[in-house]
Design brief:
Elements: H1 4-11, H2 14-25, H3 28-35, H4 43-55, H5 59-66, H6 83-92, H7 94-97, H8 101-118, H9 131-141, H10 146-168
Helix pairs in contact: 2-3, 2-10, 5-10, 8-9
């Protein structure tokens, strides 16, 4: 059985693949390097290449990727995302959308504190997490040292990218 999603990705030009992959992680250098590795023999090869390239990213790459996300509980990102990224983000954060006003307010306050402390927005793989859980994680991670937190945020961004790569390959 052929993998139609992977076959579709493999037939894109380098520029088209780069644009599609940029929706997944949000770092141009990563998207360009991953697109250059086409064609992929299978999904495992794609995911392995994505992880390998992600491991080599620098702080500036991660900050670029983070800027393409809205704050948890909000709709707008610092950098205007594509319609695909906006749709995926809304799906990922859907559990936070119905949170109580008190929780949304606490998220907004904690988001501001996080941005002030680390200089970038709080990144968490939000899929399936209720707003209360994300708020608890945010408050816990505010205690991290800056270098350690960048690593945690990057790992969360990598997890988001993996989910988005899977969505990209959907028929």
């Amino acid at each position: 059985m052929t993998d139609a999603g992977l076959a579709r990705l493999n037939t894109l030009s380098a520029a088209e693949a780069e644009a599609a992959l940029l929706h997944c992680l949000g770092a141009a250098r990563w998207a360009r390097a991953l697109a250059a590795r086409q064609p992929f023999a299978n999904r495992a090869a794609l995911f392995a290449a994505a992880d390998e390239l992600g491991a080599g990213l620098e702080r500036s790459d991660w900050l670029e990727a983070f800027s393409r996300h809205p704050k948890i509980g909000e709709k707008r990102a610092a950098e205007e995302p594509s319609s695909t990224e906006r749709r995926w983000s809304e799906q990922e954060q859907s559990a936070a959308a119905g949170a109580a006003a008190e929780t949304r307010s606490a998220l907004a306050e904690a988001n501001r504190a996080y941005l002030d402390r680390f200089g970038y927005i709080f990144i968490v793989c939000a899929t399936g997490k209720p707003a209360e859980e994300m708020l608890a994680l945010l408050r816990q991670r505010l205690q991290n040292e800056p270098d350690a937190e960048l690593g945690v945020a990057a790992e969360e961004q990598r997890r988001i990218a993996r989910l988005r790569l899977e969505k990209l390959l959907e028929p």
